[in-house]
Amino acid sequence: MAIEYTLLCDAGCGAAELQAFFRTEIHGDLDHGETVFCHGMYVTTRPIPDGEQKELFGFEPRIAATFHFSDLADDATDARNTACMVRSVLGLVTRYGCCGVLLFNGDLAITQWTPDEVVFDCDWEPWSQVELISAHPMRRLPQPLL
Fold first, then answer.
1. Residue 127, domain member (yes or no)
2. How far apart are CA 130 and CA 137, in angstroms?
3. Residue 1 confidence (pLDDT)
4. Model-level pTM greater than 0.85?
5. DSSP bridge pairs for 119
6. In terms of Cα–Cα distance, which of 3, 5, 2 is closest to 88?
7. 103 neighbors 132 (Cβ within 8 angstroms)
8. What does 72-83 look like in DSSP terms, one character per residue?
9. Which pLDDT value is given to residue 2?
10. Distance between CA atoms of 45 and 127, rounded to whole angstroms?
11. Whole domain around residue 106: which residue ranges?
């Protein structure tokens, strides 16, 4: 079974701009016009239509992106892709000054941000293996979907 991380944010950009952003961030290739691929991972983006935007995390998400990790990838590839995903989140906050959340498999909040702060969930054990997050606070995040 593949592992998925879903990013929800209120960035003021369209899905195409977000695809281009992720293509650069993960050094990927665009295929089929809407999916960005790199070894062991692909990223899809979509706008969230009016009426489907739920303010569960203190903002109304307008854009969604899903990082799909291959279950066949080796540990080194998973570590590289996790680092790419984290760099993408940090880059997104810097570039768009948005609010957002990163969910593990659609319901567990593992990262949440505002334009001023990116917080990583202290209970998410895999973060202990990601050096990029050491400059950011870690604390227990609210879990309104659980």
1. yes
2. 13
3. 63
4. yes
5. 112
6. 5
7. no
8. T--HHHHHHHHH
9. 76
10. 24
11. 3-139
Quick check: 18 and 91 in contact, CB under 8 A? no
Pull the structure tokens for residue 135. Answer: 């400059």
Q: Would residue 46 count as lying in a domain?
A: yes
| Burial of 19 per CB tally in 10 Å (0-12, 13-18, 19+) | buried
Residue 83 identity: A
Domain of residue 103, CATH code: 3.30.310
- The reply to whether 146 falls in a domain is no
Which residues have C-beta within 8 Å of that of residue 81, sequence separation ≥ 6? 26, 38, 40, 41, 67, 69, 73
* Domain-embedded: residue 144: no
Q: How many structural domains compose the chain?
A: 1
**Per-residue pLDDT tens digits of the chain, which is 146 residues long:** 679 999 999 998 987 888 889 989 988 887 766 789 999 999 999 999 887 878 899 999 999 999 999 999 999 999 999 999 999 999 999 999 999 999 999 999 999 999 999 999 999 999 998 999 999 999 999 999 98
